[in-house]
Amino acid sequence: MSPTTTEESSLLSLDALAARFGAAARSLWPEGEPVVQFEPARRVEFGDVATNVAFGLARVARMKPQDIATALVERALEDPGVRATVAAATPLAGFVNLTLQPAFWQRVVATVLREREAYGRGAPTGERISLEFGSANPTGPLVVVQGRTLSIGDTLAKAMRHAGYDVFVEWIINDAGSQLDALGRSVYARYRQLFDPAYPFPEDGYPGEYLVPVAQALRARDGEHWLGVEPDDAAPEIARFARDLIVAEQQDVARRFGVVYDLWQSEKALHDAGAIERGVERLRELGVLYEKDGALWLRTTASGDDEDRVVIRTDGRPTYFANDVAYHYEKLQRADHVIDILGPDHHGYIARLNALADAYGRTGAIEVLIAQQITLKRGDETLSMSKRAGNVVTLQDVIDEVGVDAARFFFVMLSTDQPLTFDLALAKKQSNDNPVFYVQYGHARIASVLRRAVASHADALAAAERGERLDALTEPAELALARQLAEFGPTVAGVARARAPHRLTKYARDLATEFHQFYDACRVLTDDDASTTARLGLCIATKTVLASALALCGVAAPESM
RNA sequence: GCGGUCGUAGCUCAAUUGGAUAGAGCAACAGGCUACGAACUUGUAGGUUGGGGGUUCGAGUCCCUCCGACCGCGCCA
Questions:
Q1: Alpha-carbon distance A408 to A153, whole Å?
Q2: Residues 6+ apart with CB under 8 A from A472
C-alpha cells in the first residue's frame, strides 16, 4: 500500500487518481462509503475532470458539499502521486474540479499511438450476449424503419464487442406462420396477372408492387406451369420460392448496409428441428404451464403481464408466442444475456418476454429494446407508410437517395427510444451539411496533412509514428483534443452499458470539432521540429480514433473526399 | 376504456441515468484564409424542458394529476 518513491513522483491514471481521492475521503469520513468517479468537467473553465462525491457525503458528514470538497482536496493533495498528477484543484459549488498536468494528456496521445485500433478496447467481460435485430417477415423488401433497427443493432453489437462483450448477432426469418400462405397466394395472383391483367388479387394478399418482380422470376423459372394449378395447391411451393428470393434480397440489402450477422435463423427450420417441443417441455418441467379450455397456457401474469398467454392452441398448433418460447430457450442456452431490438409495434411484448425469462428461471436475462417509430416526410408531405397499402419507402430507396454513410450515421444519431421525423428531401438537399460529412472531413483533412508531411517532414512523421516529442503538446487546443481522445474508451463502455449507440455519433462529432478547432489554432507543419513531431503525433492519434468511432458506426473513414 | 412509449430553442435532436449557468447542428445575423483541405472556424440571438402539484441539499430526469402524439390490448402473425 505504500508506494515507492518513483511511483510517488509519477503520473497516476484517472482510476488511480479516483482511488486516491476515495482513500482521502474515507480517512475523513470512514462511515461515508464514498465512491469517487471522475468525469469530464461540465465547463472548460472548471478544469479537466470533476467529481460530485461531496454531495453523497453531505448527509453522513453533516457538512455542506462545498466544505466537504474543500477539505477533501486539502487531504488528497497530501498524497505525492496526486500532487504529481494534478496541476490545480478547485472545489466549486460542491464539485471537486481538477486540472491535470499536460503530461497526463500527452500520455493519452502516446497510448493511442501505441495501441492504435485497439485503443479504447475493454477487457473481456466473459459475458456472452445474444443480440437479435432486424428480423422481418419474408414477405417484402426491408423498409426504412428497419434501417434504423439495423443501424442501431449493428453499432451496438460492434460497440459491445469493443467494450469486451462476446456478442452473437442473429436475425430470425419469420417463415413459419400463415403469412407465408398469403405470400404464396399473392405471388400466384401476380403471376396470373402477367398473363391476364384482369386476374383478381386476393383480399388478404400483399398488394405492393414489389411482388411483381417475384412473379416475373417465377415465370422465368417455371414458364406457364402454374397456370393450370389451383391457388391452394400452388401456394405452398410458390411461397417457398418467394421466401427464398425475398430473404436473399433482404440479406443483400443488409450486407450493402454494412450489417453482418452471425446467424440467419429460419423459424421454420427451428420448428422442423423440434425446438418448440423442447422449449415447451422445459416449461412443463418447470411447472409454469397449465391447461384450460383445451389449450396450453403460460402463466405470464405471475410476472406482471396483463393476461396469461396461450402457447399451444386447442387444435394442437403452436401460437406465435410459442416461437418466442422456443427461440428464446435456444438463445438462453448459448448466451448469458439476450437482447432483442424490436419495432414500436412490439412494446406489448416486453411483459411477456420478461415473464418468459422468469419462467425459465433466468429473471432479467431477456432484455427488449424498442426502436421507436420513424415518421417520413418529403418536404411538407408526410408519407404514410403501410405495407398493406403498398406505398412503402424501402431501405434501398434511402440508400440510393442519401448513401449508406449518411443513412447509417443519421439512424444511430438519434436515441433509440425517441420517435423521429426524417425528411428525405432535407437529407438529400443538405447532404453536404450532414454531420457525417463533418466527421469524415476531419478524417480526410488529417489524411491530407499527413500526405503533405511525407514530402516535407518525413523524419518528423516517422518520429511522430513512434510517439516522440509529445511533451511539446502544451497549447490549450492541443490538450483539449487529447482530452477528447481520452473519452473514447469511456464512451464505448457507456454505449455498451446503457445500450445507447447514439452516444458514439455524438462522440465522433465532438472529436471532429476538437480537431477542427485545434487545426484552426495550431499549424502542424512548421520548421519547429519538436512542435511538428508532437502535432503530427496528435494528428495520427486523432485520425486513428476518428476511424475507430466511424467504424463502430458502420461509416467509412475516407482519406479524401 | 385499460396498458405502454413519448413531449426539451423556429426545425432535427443531446443532456453520461438525480448534479454545476439545459447543450449541439440546421435556419438567421456579424466576423476570420498571400502557409498544412473554408465541407472549417469565432461571436450574437434563440428556453416557464406541454400545464399544474409533490418528493430533497438539488428534478428535463422520480411520484401524482390533467393536455397532446404514437403504439399495443386475438387460441392472428
A1: 11
A2: A530, A531, A533, A534, A535
CATH superfamily of A5-100: Arginyl tRNA synthetase N-terminal domain (3.30.1360.70)
**pLDDT tens by residue, A255-303:** 999 999 999 999 999 999 999 999 999 999 999 999 999 999 999 998 8
ipTM: 0.95
What digits encode the pLDDT tens for the residues A75-123? 999 999 999 999 999 999 899 999 999 999 999 999 999 999 999 999 9
Of the candidate CATH numbers 3.40.50.720, 3.40.190.10, 1.10.730.10, 3.90.190.20, the domain formed by A434-553 belongs to 1.10.730.10
In tens, the pLDDT along A314-337 reads: 999 999 999 999 999 999 999 999
Domain boundaries defined on chain A: 5-100, 434-553
Which pairing describes strands A49-51 and A166-173: parallel, antiparallel, or unpaired?
unpaired
Q: Is the pLDDT of residue A7 over 80?
A: no
* Whole-angstrom distance, CA of residue A551 vs CA of residue A545: 10
Output the distance from A438 CA to B40 C1' rounded to whole Å. 9
The A420-423 sheet, strands edge to edge? A381-383, A374-378, A420-423
Instruction: Select from A476, A509, A506, A480 the least CA-distant residue to A491.
Output: A506
Residue A294 sits at φ, ψ, to 5 deg, of: 85, 0
Q: Is the pLDDT of residue A377 over 90?
A: no
pTM of the model: 0.94
Amino acid at A260: V
Protein CB footprint (7 Å) on chain B nucleotides: 2-7, 11-17, 19-21, 24-27, 32, 35-42, 57-58, 70-77
Which triple of cell numbers denotes residue A266? 429460419
Q: Tell me the CA–C1' distance in angstroms for A516 and B40.
A: 7
Contact between A341 and A133 under an 8 Å Cβ cutoff? The reply is: yes
**Rounded-to-integer distance, Cα A318 and Cα A546, Å:** 49
3-state secondary structure A159-173: HHHHCCCEEEEEEEE
Q: What Å value separates CA A350 and C1' B76? A: 19
SS3 A4: coil
CA distance A413 to A398: 16
Interval A163-188 mean pLDDT: 92
* Helix-helix angle A502-521:A529-553, to 10 degrees: 160
